[in-house]
Here is the input.
Amino acid sequence: MPDKQAFIRNQTRVLPVPSLPEMRLYQADEVTPLWLMTEQNLVQERLAPPFWAFAWSGGQALAKYVAAHPAIVQGKRVLDIACGSGLVGIAAMRADAESVLCNDIDPYAEAAVALNAALNDVTLAFTGDDLLDGPLPEIDVILAGDICYEKAMTDAMLTYFRRAARQSIEVYIGDPHRTYFPKDGLTRLAAYDIITNADIEDRALKPASVWKLNP
Here is the structure.
């Protein structure tokens, strides 16, 4: 962990979250070394694509919604699945969740979550397990930002979420209207224009919505 944390400190810098400037994360941008690494460099360094180094638009939208509607997490046990930087989990703890378990299979995400939690004065638990085929953790709420990049992952996540909903776990999803996002069985709660980086999200202001899985 210390080596991964040192890598993140050296390769990124502390920046405010564009649409939630009261929160800060270790992020890559055009002046940081990680930004300049090519796919070949990542392979050489044995790094997965560094999703943990960016405040993606779906996660920002979901974090904004949590901040504006804290009752959805207050006093509840929360899972931030495919958490990346831990942005959404941080928002949940700031909104007085009882606890937040962050989950991501990238080992660098664990280091990023630890650094970002400390930066924002919150406590986050972490698991690197692949949760999708296992038993559900003891939770009340699932928060998921930006999980619809690929059809297979989207389908697997939705299957997991529906299993959770059958156990009375509430599921909230933030997504910038990606191709594979399924609207069936979901209710849209909010829509935002999210400030982001055009180099990673194709535009500097990106529409994103927050949805709740119907029980």
